[in-house]
Amino acid sequence: MSHNKSITFIYVAAIVISVYGESPASNIEETANMTSKIHKVLVSSNDFPASAVNILKDFFTVEQTNFLNFGEEGLSKNYEELMNLIPGSSALVWVSHHPITTELLDKAGPQLKIVATASAGYNHCNLKELKSRGIQLTNTPNVLSPAVAEIAITLMLGAARRFTENLAQVRSGEWEIGFDKVLGQDIRGSTVGIIGLGGIGQATVKRLAGFEVAKFLYTGHREKPEGKALNAEFVPLDTLLSQSDFIVLAVPLNDETKHMINKTTIAKMKKNAIVINIGRGELIDQEALYDALKNKDIYAAGLDVTTPEPLPKDHKLLTLLNVFVLPHIGSATVRTRTEMGELAANNVVNALTGKPLITPVTL
Ligand code: DGY
């Protein structure tokens, strides 16, 4: 019996024993079948990790679309299939950043109990709508923090050491060779300001431990004990903006944080400031960022997230050499995506078997 199967067996045995007292094996198998017959779970994309699908299959009837839930396919072909598959589902596992529409929730029916988004961010989920329908929401924080923090540091290095410009030189074969050519900035001795010292912000500070950073600042709603432990100083946003050499955006996107980096806040930054965004593109007013980078009001930006995504290849931001852009790959490692998928699946198992959610989103 596989590890997953044994866990399922033990779990189902526990249910049976709690309901019937000690029961013969045939009753246990029956209960497993009953559980799987009761609930249908819809997985919104064809690329959800197999191990996570198997966790769901151990308990429920699982439907999965034949398409990706990303990009154009996610918005057209996949959406059509989701609309056909969703009626009668008790859970929806959401595997992209496309909005979950009210039309889809209507189509699901009143038995839909949980939406489990396989992402830390949940700005694509309409919280008010879910709450008014009594649908629970879970996300997948923490398991992705190390991978996203690695990308934050990659962006810091990439922007500070002028990777866009340098990689273009490698491709063209025209290297600017010289002792004072393409010089960048050090992380060593710098002040790193983290906007949002949550799991990802903390993981980033931890991973920068060997870089000889002079000072860590952070801002947010309140001072955190983790800040003290990491030797990071809690400061108001304006102080962080005016003192930091690196400004790392690690906050969720919501009404309060949308366009928090704008003309006014950029004007408070140092001339050598480097803005790093690993949250969501809309944290930044991209027009204002473009102007600041073009006019060299700040030094550079490193972006894993943009508006829109994908960023069109002829977007004016990409004409600048002092911006280093990655295609939203913060959590894109085999291990992390597997752990995100399995966490989403286990949240669904708990929701539909009357156990507390592992990572609930407060609605
Ligand atoms: C998230 O989980 O929100 C990240 O953006 C990766 O998808």
Helices and strands, with pairings:
Elements: H1 3-20, H2 25-38, E1 40-43, H3 50-57, E2 61-64, H4 71-75, H5 77-85, E3 91-94, H6 102-108, E4 114-117, H7 127-132, E5 136-138, H8 145-160, H9 163-172, E6 191-195, H10 199-207, E7 215-219, H11 225-229, E8 232-234, H12 237-243, E9 246-249, H13 263-267, E10 274-277, H14 286-294, E11 300-303, E12 323-325, H15 334-352
Helix pairs in contact: 1-2, 3-15, 8-10
The chain binds (2R)-2,3-dihydroxypropanoic acid.
Structure description:
The chain is an alpha/beta fold and 363 residues long. Helices cover 40% and strands 13% of the residues. The protein contains 15 helices and twelve strands. The strands form two sheets. Strands 8-7-6-9-10-11-12 form a seven-stranded parallel β-sheet, with helices on both faces. The N terminus is likely disordered. The site of (2R)-2,3-dihydroxypropanoic acid has 6 residues, from loops.
Summarize the structure.
This protein is of the alpha/beta class and 363 residues long. The chain contains 15 helices and twelve strands.
Mean pLDDT: 91
Number of helices: 15
Order of helices and strands: HHEHEHHEHEHEHHEHEHEHEHEHEEH
> What is the overall shape?
globular
Provide the descriptors you would attach to this structure in a database record:
Rossmann fold; disordered N terminus; 13% strand; 7-stranded parallel sheet; 5-stranded parallel sheet; 363 residues; alpha/beta; 15 helices; binds (2R)-2,3-dihydroxypropanoic acid
